Amino acid sequence: MVNVPLAMRFACIILLWLLNFVAVSQTYQQIKNRFDNYLNYHAGLNSRVQIETNKIIFYNEQKQIVFIILKDDWQKMAVLLKTLPQDSLEKIFRNEATLSNYKTPSINPAKKSLSELKIMIDPGHIAGNISMARIEQKYLHFTKQNYPALKQDSIDIAEGVLTFQTASVLKKMLEEKGITVALTRQENGTSFGCSYDEWLKTNKEKKIKPHTTVSNGKFFMPFFKDYELQQRAKVINDFKPDMTIIIHYNVDEKNIDWKKPSNKDFCVTFIPGCLTADNIKTVQGQLNLLRLLLTDDLDESEKISSLVVNQLSKQLNIPIAKKQDATYLSEHCMSASTEGVYSRNLALCRTVQSPLVYGECLYQDSENECYALTQNTETAYGIKTNKRVMLAAQSFYNAIINFYSK
Questions:
Q1: Which sign does the torsion angle of CA 191, 391, 150, 322 carry?
Q2: What single DSSP character describes residue 404?
Q3: CATH architecture of 114-405
Q4: How far apart are CA 210 and CA 227, in angstroms?
């Protein structure tokens, strides 16, 4: 009788040890999978990051160790990466402070209700009219000569207008569910809280002296576009969203100059990944990589992106893009484990500190889309738009609600 409970106790000890080993192994495998299959583009990070079963090592360009995070600290670091301010995280990474300097914040494991959620929506680009769309080179102009099926002499499409309409409708739909929602910009506005022209008047000569002699259009592409994206990421991260929705409308990359319609039409979504050594030259870049390795941001991004791309395909009745459908997908992206989701090295994908979906709803230059996108026959929440935008907004909404109902 005595030997039985002793044997059972021994068996339990062995079982617990095995379970602990499996859990550690799974954690390592999860991190290694993120690194190998989502983040490490063409092995470009191999000289700067080493993933081992018991530690992660960061090196500088001279192959000197700059930071080591041990397995026992992975969980705590994951929490701190989501809760500490950037300057505190940088102190840890520069070895100016240790993890023991910071208490691990208590995080409520209970699932949030919709009324507790915060969602940031980023309407891609800034144009609220064709004039601004020409400056940022995100517009289409089709004439009857190149598109005989047109019922008018010409049509103009500004992507920034489409994204803002989609974001505005989606915002209202989510708010009806009690969700707190914010936009990164307003109509024909930048993430600085003003229009591009207004920003130029107050900032160009004062802050960006080397560019003061160039025209507005030439100034936008070499400097302002990337500068504004940095501000957009800051606006998003300061909001501390549970999720970020980035809305774009695509074009056929091979439809040169987009002067006539294409016969292609796809939807696709992007998540963080495809990083290179250049992306982790700074401490901030290295911390962004560490966050993607240690937290579930990448996994959650893939989940919401899969839901979004399937909803876009269903609602808009268009196919999901496969890797061979575009050069940038086959040559500059890494396929996620779910259809229509790709890791891509985009500025916001790198720097936004929350789960995200970067959705390309449809091809604006598709012969089945370009005319429909100009027919603003629908009104929702006081917003005048077209049926395709309404269906795109519905797609994002359905995906978000499905994501949080599981």
A1: positive
A2: H
A3: 3-Layer(aba) Sandwich (3.40)
A4: 14
- Compute the mean pLDDT over every residue in the chain, rounded to the nearest whole number: 89
pLDDT tens track for 198-250: 998 887 665 555 544 445 556 777 788 999 999 999 999 999 999 999 999 99
pTM for this predicted structure: 0.91
Mean pLDDT of 254-276: 93
Q: Rounded CA gap, 228 and 123, in Å? A: 13
Strand pairing category for 139-143 and 154-158: antiparallel
Tell me how many helices (H) and strands (E) the chain has: 14, 14
Chain centroid to CA 255: 26
Place of tokens 């049509």: 155
Residue showing tokens 């006081």:
382
201, 206, 208, 213 alpha-carbon torsion, rounded to 10°: 60
- Alpha-carbon span 108 to 131, nearest angstrom: 48
The set of long-range contacts for 131-134, using a CB threshold of 8 Å and a minimum separation of 24, is: 132/158, 132/160, 132/188, 132/195, 132/196, 133/158, 133/159, 133/160, 133/161, 134/217
Cα 334 to Cα 22, 76, 341: the distances in Å are 28, 29, 9
Tens-place pLDDT, residues 386-397: 999 999 999 999
Tell me the chain's radius of gyration from C-alpha atoms.
24
Q: What are 402's two structure tokens?
A: 């499905």
How many Cβ atoms are within 10 Å of 125's Cβ, its own excluded?
26
Task: Provide the residue type at 378 as one letter.
Answer: E
Is the separation of the CB atoms in 159 and 249 below 8 Å? yes
CA atoms within 13 A on the CB side of 265: 16
Distances (CA, A) of 319 to 65, 325, 330, 338: 46, 11, 17, 15
Domain boundaries, given as residue ranges, for the chain: 1-39, 42-109, 114-405
C-beta of residue 288 within 8 angstroms of C-beta of residue 86 = no
Distances in whole angstroms, Cα of residue 75 to Cα of each of 31, 48, 190, 293, 374: 12, 22, 37, 11, 50
What is the C-alpha separation between 31 and 75, in angstroms, rounded?
A: 12
